Amino acid sequence: MPRAGRRRACRLHPLPSRNPFVNSARFSVALLFLVVAGCASDPAPHEQLRLSEQALVQARAVGADAEQTELALAQGKFEQAGAALAAGHHKQARMLAEQAELDARLAEAQLLTRKSNKQVSEVEQQIGVLRQQLGEL
């Protein structure tokens, strides 16, 4: 039976060390882990650059060209993102790559909307011609 007032350490939870060297070593190790984790928190945005490039290719595939403002903006931001990545500015590169992807998708959506509106106008015109022909009967 343990004596009253005496603390007993278990195997899983040992008593804290009273040795100042051990405490400072633990603090140093913890600080080192925090520094390493802080430096590794912003990885290179290679995947985002790939997605941006894919969005640019897709926009061109549906017929967008460099004359379209949004596509030109997307291309410029994509090139800036590549330069920022090469300079080691990962956060800026990621942000520019995301903007490039969104601009390319916007260019694609605007082009598809214009094409759809043109098709709707053509169908409405054909319907008008058919109504005239039916009225003549």
UniProtKB/TrEMBL annotation:
Taxonomy, superkingdom: Bacteria
Chain ranges of the DUF4398 domain: 47-122
InterPro entries hit by this protein: DUF4398 (IPR025511)
Protein name (Swiss-Prot/TrEMBL): DUF4398 domain-containing protein
Organism in which the protein naturally occurs: Azotobacter chroococcum
Lineage of source species: Bacteria, Pseudomonadati, Pseudomonadota, Gammaproteobacteria, Pseudomonadales
